[in-house]
Write a structure and sequence with these properties.
The complex is a heterotrimer of chains A (291), B (238) and C (310). By secondary structure, chain B is α/β, with parallel strands linked by helices. Chain B is built from 9 helices and 10 strands. Chain B has one domain: P-loop containing nucleotide triphosphate hydrolases (Rossmann fold, 3-Layer(aba) Sandwich), CATH 3.40.50. Classes of the chains: A mainly alpha (291), B alpha/beta (238), C mainly alpha (310).
Amino acid sequence: MIFSFDLLFEAVLFGVLLGCFYAAVSIGLSVSFGLLDVPHVAHPALMVLGSYCTFIVAGWGLDPIVAGVVLMPVFFVLGVLIYRFYYETFEKRGTEAGVRGLAFFFGLAFIIEVGLILVFGVDQRTVQAPYIGSSLALGEYRLPYRMLVAFGVALCLTVVLTLYLSKTFTGRAIKAVAQDEPALRLMGANPVRIKQWAFGIATGVSALAGAMLIIVGPVEPALDRLYIGRTFCVVVLAGLGSMTGTLGAGLILGISESIVLMMFGASWAPAVAFGLLLVVLGIRPQGLFGR
Amino acid sequence: MDALLQVKQVSKHFGGFTALSEVSIDIAPGERFGLIGPNGSGKTTLINCISGLLRNEGGEIVFEGRKITRLAPFQRTRLGIARSFQVPRPFHTMSVLENLLVPSAYVAHLKDSEGEARGMEILKSIGLADKAQAFASQLSQVELRKLELARAMAAKPRLLISDEAMAGLSGSEVDEILKILFDLNEKGITIVMIEHIMQAVMRFSQRVVCLDAGRIICEGTPASIVKNADVQKAYLGA
Amino acid sequence: MKYWISVAVLLIVAFAAALSGVNEYFFYAGYIVLTFVVLATAWNILGGYAGYVNFGTGAFFGFGSYAAVVLFKALGAPLIVQIAAGAAIGAALGFGVGIMTLRLRGIFFAIATVAILFIAETLMVNWRYVGGATGLQLLRPEATAPFGSYTRMLFVVMTLLAVIAVSVARYIQTSWIGRGLRAIRDSEEAAECSGVPTLRLKLIACVVSGALMGAAGAPMPMYLSFIEPASSFSLNWGVSALAMPMIGGTGHWIGPVIGALLLGSVQQIVTVTISNEINVLVVGVLLVLFVVLAPDGVIGLFKRWTRSSR
């Protein structure tokens, strides 16, 4: 175990950057699971798919972030299709939907993961960019540029999405459908269309999240398993339905993980998200800011 | 005579929203009690607090002299409080008769053979005997409502709460359900009826309480309630 | 009665086969398929009967394996003690996870099981005594007579475990517990208001399920002569344990058996002839296909077929 205040400060700094990144990759789940109640355990898998797509598109010469943005509309459509299918097959029937819906997304996650293995192999993939590989020196502390870029993008993404949900008409309709679907129906809006749109947005955001993922570090197909822990930890810790909470929860996770990484090494860090998730479920399942 | 059920200053909040605010009601044994109020006034929330699906934050609930505020729903059912659900929730993978076996086994502690016999008696008394082997998907609306009541009856309740059992039913169907509730009351079961159908509430209840925005705004005989200005305002707006 | 006669016949046949000259590979593959029968049956007690999905079968299974290894390494414990320890650990874990999350909605329980899986792997990776990330090689004891090889003996042991698991599932299904679990699955709130102690029943199902999974994991290290965290605590166990009952049919104890026999055999064939990745893909695709098209599984298809041919 290593400990010193300098290292601790650097870990916290890194943790803030990491935490914002975690918030951004979880925000799609915050919408699809937190607001729409879809048991979307395939969310990390879709994000990893986004990483690999970024890998391909970036290979054509685009900057990875640009690649991610370019992929967003494609993933939006994918999200709409997935939700439509889920709704027609499971949610409409109501009753047995719980188990089957979960099983469906679980199976989907596996299909995506194995599909990626078959196409790309199990080796790790990375992307190249001028900001990947070097660090910003702040006094004695080194902050990797790629983390700063991810932090910046993540912050923008979170702010934009939060504003969208609270200021625009469609955004508020999305929040409304989460709280009181019958009332929304009475107002003439079509809840299914709204949920479809929301799920599309959540998936589109995952494309950008995937781009950030492959910028922050190498990706491999099985990465989605680890991120189930991180994304659900953030969403549950924040509290279902809270967008701003996602940022706070992400920071808590990022800083915790970073400190554990510093003190105990890389073999313990992955368990932090899952451990934190269990603690939250055990003591305060409604999260910090939930509805 | 001691009250069967005492709701004492019960409050319930959902985040910033107050669903119930210091509601107090006493229900006498054998009474036919009506609970009315516009949509969103807190009727179902109150029922959920009494049956235990929700925990009230303020106040106490006392049943037969015993505080039940901390008890789980299944414990309250075993003490004698049964309820039906506003939107019927049948056990859809079980037949009608099997639905009744659940409370028979878990509340009345009857073996299956006894439970079936008793279940058939209940079904006969409410006119569902010929549907004993049917499944929920094959039942009509009024039959589903009857199943809800039958399942509550199978729990040998002393207090039965009927949550809008007649909503959306035709005139004759409403009469069918009313008759079932009257018959139960004659056998000594205290009944709390939540309804929107005013003529049903008026015919059935000995006493009526009106809720609005989580508060009791009026209490009295059916005749006096109907004339009350506050009640009219609550239903029709200012 | 018919059931117990079939069980007796099955055990006799398995025993006789193990003593016969049948190809060793049959027992090698058969052991795995039988393990899946236990896992699928155990999964279904909580997932099929009560409606609470467990993704982390690997955690219970893996902890059973590691409990066996620890006892074997520290005390040279015989197989039966290892299995009992596996069951005990699985039961304890089931109780722990259950008491923490079964009060919440189903998806929270499911996610908690994934969390347990990863935490379990992390713990074992960091424990030098059991070999950490690289794992441990194990020396099997001598094969006990009358069996010609240790694998054959394990085959018979796993047959017995499978019989126990299915018998337990059958008892639960047909007893008052089973009806309560079904009520919980159909409408938990209505069940609670009908006098069903939902948390208690869910806990019972979770503990029994966990115990069986842990017991199934215990002989695995002896079977492989090896143990390591990554494969013991893989999410792949979870997807198989879930897919098999969903494919076979979740309402009846025979469903997981059918699913395990079918899918388990397919898995053995695919893994050997094509690749392990395609194997997982097949499981995933079949799972999604059945969940979407045949939600009542093979049992459901069979019922539909017999009804329409009448």
